[in-house]
Amino acid sequence: MSEAVNPFESLQEQIDDAAEYLDFEPGAIERIKHPERVLEANLAVEMDDGEVEVFRAYRSQFNGDRGPYKGGVRYHPNVSRDEVKALSGWMVFKCATVDIPYGGGKGGIVIEPDDYSDAELERITRAFTSAIRPIIGPDRDIPAPDVNTGQREMDWIKDTYETLEDTTAPGVVTGKAIGSGGSAGRVEATGRSVMLASREAFDYLGTDVEGATVAVQGYGNAGSVAARLIDEMGASVVAVSDSQGAIYDPDGLDTEAAKEHKNGTGSVVGFEGAAEEITNEDLLTLDVDLLVPAALENAINYDLAQDVRADVIVEAANGPLTPRADDVLTERDVTVVPDILANAGGVTVSYFEWVQNRQRFSWTEERVNDELERVIVTAFDRLVATHEERGTPNLRIAAYVVAVQRVLEAYGQAGNWP
Ligand code: NAD
Questions:
Q1: Are 180 and 158 in contact (CB under 8 A)?
Q2: Residue closest by Cα to atom 29 of ligand 1
Q3: Is the whole-model pTM more than 0.90?
């Protein structure tokens, strides 16, 4: 069966699904199905050998009704205009689902970062910042890390912006190193919300997370932290994977040791603490209680969804299920906790970082984690209440119902003027 796997079309379908449960004019819905603006840049950067190479880059500002645009910057060869547009839209509805006062944005550079030296990546990041500088700023649009970017890149963006603007503006970017104005708890925040969402989902379903078996696809920032924190709740992480392959042990993996192995060798594959190596597809169809996709979009499509044997899926990645896979899993009664709630810990603690930057005051890690837990649990409860009250087929549509309503209420309150 053919299916739309353009992530931007997936986003638009998700908005349409929610609109059926809401009473807004078609024009208002149409407006939030498209970005307000997309900047496309071609970064001409000198390489270490003296040659100039050109990199295509984007920044999409999807919607700013509820606050400044907010969202990560991705470095990946598959970055495209439509992917960036989709990711920026998901940020809008994510921030609205957890009720933090941001709109949504996203950026990306079409690049395989492993092919470049650190010095080249720094020059590319500074060129990107220079290109997007006219549209970013602590009150306008605030970038953050995403796939293949982290504290280092955020520090480069902040330094470039501050130098060009001749000011100090730590709130121009989040996910910074602590010494540059980062927040305690930010590195762990996405994985932490995945853990909290998993805990709440098991609680809602009346099943015990202790002793539950778990498979995690993608062992980067989001996946490896989620695996460790879920493991600490007493569940058993039996399989993890990265782009090079997957490892499996029915008796449970040592999630920390697997991470150290990946840090040392570049992959979880070859980790001697695992009973066997399996394929990435095997991992997604393992008979586990909980599956956490934490890699990229469209990891589970219509065909694969028929073979998924997990009871619960908690989406750490953005858009890991195609819309048709979603239909199959809803039909098969698999509980899916949607990305716009489950991985919202990243943007929530980014918001806390930005608040601290504005206050020029640091919170303790305990305060950050407590506030994050409150935000995620409140949002989860609202999702479940909406699902039950409105009779939505699944939690994703419930999340979009909550989020679309909040965005359009903000728009309505602002009035419509040319
Ligand atoms: P990352 O670069 O740290 O990790 C990505 C991981 O996925 C890597 O281990 C990579 O090897 C693996 N991977 C790639 N293709 C794979 C495949 N086909 N099969 C198995 N593994 C594969 O990135 P990240 O920051 O952890 O982001 C992962 C996902 O989480 C993305 O969808 C991102 O948008 C989302 N997310 C991240 C954050 C954050 O704060 N980092 C916040 C919200 C959402």
A1: yes
A2: 317
A3: yes
- Choose the catalytic residue: 70, 85, 94, 106: 106
Helix boundaries (H) for 332-394: 339-342, 345-359, 365-390
Polymer length in residues for the chain:
418
Q: For residue 238, what are the contacts with CB-CB under 8 A and spacing of at least 6?
A: 213, 214, 215, 248, 249, 250, 251, 252, 253, 286, 288
Is any atom of ligand 1 closer than 6 Å to the C-beta of 284? Answer: no
Asked if residue 350 has its Cβ within 6 Å of ligand 1, the reply is: no
Establish whether residue 369 lines the binding site of ligand 1, counting it when its CB lies within 6 angstroms of any ligand atom.
Answer: no
**Cβ neighbours for 26, distance < 8 A, ≥ 6 positions apart:** none
The answer to whether 194 and 316 are in contact (CB under 8 A) is yes
Q: What pLDDT digit, counting tens, does each position of 273-318 carry?
A: 888 999 999 999 999 999 999 999 999 999 999 999 999 999 999 9
